Amino acid sequence: MGRGRVQMKRIENNINRQVTFSKRRSGLLKKAHEISVLCDAEVALIIFSTKGKLFEFASDSNMEGILKKYERHSDSRKEAVEVDPSSQASWNFEYGKLKSKVESLQKDQRQLLGQDLDSLNQRDLHHLENQLEAALKNVRSRKNHLFVNSIAELQKKEKLLQEQNKELEKKLNEKEGDKEKERAQIQQTSWEQQSQGQQGSSSSSTSFLPPEQPPILNVGSRVGGEERAEGQNQGQVRVKSALPSWMLRSMNA
User: Fold this and answer.
1) Which of 8, 57, 80, 135 has its CA 20 to 30 Å from the CA of residue 152?
2) Helical H segments across 113-244, by residue range
3) Are 219 and 231 spatial neighbours (Cβ–Cβ below 8 Å)?
């Protein structure tokens, strides 16, 4: 069965009050120690009994340092709370002044946007028009300045790109020239190889040709005693030279 809810009032019995104080004091000191260890907090606990007996707890046993820090914090809080009446009046005056100034600026802004113009007379409208013209002039001047700067920047970029293009074109031309030289060398090498191959084939073909036959003289058909006789003699000599020696001897005999 659970414990009933304890009424928050003074315990009249002295013995029960003393027992409850002892139990609650031990539990409170234990909780202070736990929160100082678990949460790494600076905890200072001071308890005085009804008889004036002191019970205390301080994290890291630094009660004086915690009390000094508490005093500094409480003093600064009191200074923030306590306000001088004269300074309060000056603040109220400054607040009203700033508020009226903000309202005036907001009104001017609305009028510059073309709103709340009913309260303005001709002179105020003329002054507002001059303000708008001056503002428009400043806007146009700033716009032109930005345009000029952007154009100069674009021209600079264009010049840089042209220089890069020239460099790339120069490199490309150099590469094309190198390629043409390589092609010419390759073509010249192929021609030399072909010429060497043709020379080798011609020499080989001449080495395999059959031996030349002795030339055969044809006797001319022209009628003439000397030419006919000379042709016959040459023919006989050619025939004799072609016959073996034993046939020649038999013919001569």
Assistant:
1) 135
2) 122-207, 225-242
3) yes
The residue type found at 129 is E
Question: 0.70 exceeded by the pTM?
Answer: no
Helix (H) or strand (E) holding 45: strand 44-48
Contact 107, 118 (CB under 8 A): no
Q: What is the number of other CB atoms lying within 10 angstroms of the CB of residue 9?
A: 6
Whether 125 and 117 have beta carbons less than 8 Å apart is answered as yes
Residues of the chain with pLDDT under 70: 1-4, 77-87, 200-253
Closest CA to 217 of 237, 202, 197, 198: 237
Q: What are phi and psi of 215, to 5 degrees?
A: -65, 140
Q: Would you mind telling me the total number of residues written for the chain in this entry?
A: 253
Give the pLDDT confidence score for residue 223 in this predicted structure: 42
Q: Which of 220, 252, 222, 246 is nearest to 235 (CA)?
A: 220
In angstroms, the CA 158 to CA 156 distance is 5
pLDDT at position 108 = 85
How many other β-carbons are positioned within 10 Å of the β-carbon of residue 59? 19
